[in-house]
Specification:
Order of helices and strands: HH
Distance between the termini: 13 Å
Number of strands: 0
Radius of gyration: 14 Å
Largest sheet: none
Number of helices: 2
Length: about 70
């Protein structure tokens, strides 16, 4: 999971991000899905991103959650 913070006035599209990943990463590491959000990521008291909370929204309608 990666977090990208853009400079004010700059734009980034899903296609631009995927193209960058294709140049920089192995094919199996290229993300299948990209979502942009204006909200702050949930963090613990020590400042680490709480990935289990982020994953939870994607596993709501699934029979079984895989971590």
């Amino acid at each position: 999971m990666a977090c990208v913070v853009l400079k004010p006035g700059s734009t980034l599209t899903v296609d631009d991000l995927i193209a960058f990943c294709r140049q920089s990463l192995a094919s199996y590491k290229i993300p299948r899905r990209v979502e942009f959000s204006d909200r702050e990521l949930p963090k613990s008291g020590s400042g680490k991103i709480l990935k289990r909370l982020l994953r939870g929204q994607f596993w709501v309608h699934q029979e079984r959650a895989v971590s």
